[in-house]
């Protein structure tokens, strides 16, 4: 609408300058039209440079954060550095388990900020999006032709994960998968020896405290000790491989 007004005022100003014969009326009308034309141009500039007639509006969206790792035991949040600075990263994740193509955060660091948080609840992504919107339908009517309504200002992503998650670059994740495959046979042997020794130690200690322990209790103790020892070994072994993958 403002563009139409500028065109109409420019035409009217030209017509008034060449068609009105009386000098006083011609100059009065021309000055008024020129002032309105100048004001319209100033408002266009202000709308473009300072978002005249607009205000910032922030909305919040929460989505699930699902690991991109094919392993249910190994939960990962991946990232890819943008440029040479490790401060600017694109994070890679899924919003649902059946999703084939992972979701990525906006790669433009001037439009997006990402922060990884460790929480105890369900992993999720909380995105706060700020946009410029017109204050009223009137402002939109006059300046909406510029196509800047709902113009993005900033995405602020909070990626909330649990403490057992790994945050790795895409390259580190590939290296980790390769290391796990290469060491799987050796890890099975080490796991068997580690679990056997741990279970024997736990049962021996328990039998010293209670020499008359029943067979049923011994069986339950063995099962529980095996479960704990297996988890402990997996955590220990995976920590070593992760450190190697990060080198």
Written account of the structure:
- This protein is α/β, with parallel strands linked by helices and 247 residues long.
- 50% of the residues lie in helices and 23% in strands.
- The chain is built from five helices and eight strands; from the N terminus they run ααββββββαββαα.
- The protein has helices at residues 2-19, 23-50, 137-143, 170-209, 215-245, and strands at residues 54-64, 76-81, 89-93, 103-104, 112-118, 124-134, 151-161, 166-169.
- The strands form two sheets. A four-stranded mixed beta sheet has the order 1-6-7-5.
- A hairpin with a 7-residue loop joins strand 2 and strand 3 (89-93).
- Helix 1 (2-19) runs antiparallel to helix 2 and helix 4 packs antiparallel against helix 5.
- The radius of gyration is 34 Å and the shape is rod-shaped.
- It starts with a helix and ends with a helix.
- The mean pLDDT is 90.
